[in-house]
């Protein structure tokens, strides 16, 4: 499959680590220019920048709390001023659950998860759509959700609520934007070895225990999700919208059977 993203510009949130970083690197390999956003860890995102700069692309780093409307608007203004276009939006920024029973979860904790995971998608998609009103090329939006947008875990009401909402939001938006030739799709990762699963990275025995639930018997890598993102922004996926691509080694199938 020959994919060339030269001449395209992608804005990727949460590019400092994990899935966002992997997507940035894979896009860069294919010639895409990048707007890399990060929340607070400049050292981490500088590592991402070093990786993508190897491929000779034009790249822009922007610090932003993408759960805040004003900061997202400024982010897009800066990106458009620099590149004059944004072809792809990848909403990868997010936080994990606070991992508490509902009775112990504070409104502040719940709100933080929803603001970070869901409102960031709302604000970024809205700005992307406004930009695209005068843009004639086909656009792509990818929202990173989770297998927990389909199957759930106890003690993760905040996270599951945010990821279910992203899926519904994306499907509705795909209908809104179809006439503008903008596709909207989700990627739902399963167990991926990112900082969100740091314990599984640090403790092989713990990871092996969790991998027993996965039909393929191993955890995924951020690059596995990035490969799905590459396909969804490519011309090969031009007729695909409103879908969720699951990248989980079959985990969700076991979960729906009641496997633990």
The percent range for strand residues is: 5-15%
**CATH class, anyone?**
Alpha Beta
- Termini separation comes to 37 Å
Order the strands across the largest sheet as they lie in space. Answer: 3-2-1-4-5-6-7
The second-level CATH architecture is 3-Layer(aba) Sandwich
**pLDDT < 50 stretches:** none
In quaternary terms, these chains amount to single chain
Order of helices and strands: EHEHEHEHEHEHHHEH
Average pLDDT taken over every residue: 93
Rg value: 18 Å
Number of helices: 9
Name given to the CATH homologous superfamily: NAD(P)-binding Rossmann-like Domain
Q: Given the C-alpha coordinates, what overall shape results? A: globular
How many strands, what sense, and barrel or not for the largest sheet? 7 strands, parallel
Q: In percent, how helical is the residue content?
A: 40-55%
Q: Which secondary-structure class do the elements indicate?
A: alpha/beta
Task: Please name the defining characteristics of this protein.
single chain; 260 residues; alpha/beta; Rossmann fold; seven-stranded parallel sheet; 7 strands; globular
